[in-house]
Amino acid sequence: MNxxxxxxxxxxxxxxxxxxxxxxxxxxxxxxxxMALLGHNGxxxxxxxxxxxxxxxxxxxxxxxxxxxLTAVKNRAELKIGYLPENVSFYDKLTGKEILNxxxxxKGIGKVRVVQLLEEFGLEYAxxxxxxxxxxxMKQRLGFAQAILCRPELLLLDExxxxxxxxxxxxxxxxIDELKQQGCGVIVCTHELSLIENNIDxxxxxxxxxxxxxGTLADLRLASGLKTRLTSPQLAEAIALQPQLAALxxxxxxxxxxxxxxxxxxxxxxxxxxxxxxLKEPALxxxxxxxxxxxxxxxxxx
Length: 302
Ligand SMILES: Nc1ncnc2c1ncn2[C@@H]1O[C@H](COP(=O)(O)OP(=O)(O)OP(=O)(O)O)[C@@H](O)[C@H]1O
Fold this sequence. Notes:
It comes from Shewanella pneumatophori. The chain contains 10 helices and 14 strands. By secondary structure, the chain is an alpha/beta fold. A hairpin with a 2-residue loop joins strand 4 (about 60-65) and strand 5 (about 70). The radius of gyration is 23 Å and the shape is globular. Bound molecules: adenosine-5'-triphosphate (ATP).
């Protein structure tokens, strides 16, 4: 079994009675890598997370977590998995410190770690206040601290930044980054595509229980065939000098595939002497919508 992998999932199927929630889903997440798990409501993301947590057994396929085949793991606690559910809810009459101490005791973790996490997550000042007095951001930080109490080697986060302001969201991603640096594999389920774009290594796009695409952003861009947009204040001059560029024009820019991108850049900086231009690669949101559109088209055909 490959010890570099935090998760290795191959050909996962899952049925709820007659309904196929997951169909032949395969993916790997390396230790130290973050994967975005993307998909529409009901795509099968939570089902996949529940399988990784060992809460449900898949109807078919193989899943290894942290180098161990899930079916062979007798005591789940021996796997260092952290989990932050969507809309984390704790008993709100307890204080932040009491909540972390409670989970620490359940997991056999000492109170020193709780003290350290309360400080790390900027909650020291509110540690003795009841949870009901906490803001959304404070509750989410407490939830995150709870998820990493066990110093996880695999961290599963369901919508970790929903409802958070930009600074609070960035704080969450900086914490994820620290864990990655320590070799933790991270899977983030989210609909916040522009926010996650710069914080992931790979993505898996699910629709109707099937994997539509997976890989790095560069892989997904290439496979989608979506084009790079080049804009320049000197575009009209460049087209006047090289009229063949007009065929690539759309609106105020040029749309370029992988091959034409290098040719056009060469032409602009060479013959046209145009150096003031910018290239915009397709964003994760565009890539996601492209694949969702393809899935809808396939449905229309079938
Ligand atoms: N216990 C269950 N019994 C029957 N069907 C279920 C069960 N759990 C989930 N499903 C169905 O499986 C499909 C996938 O659900 P899942 O919760 O995994 O989707 P999701 O991608 O997490 O959606 P969301 O983004 O809305 O949270 C849905 O059609 C859902 O209704």
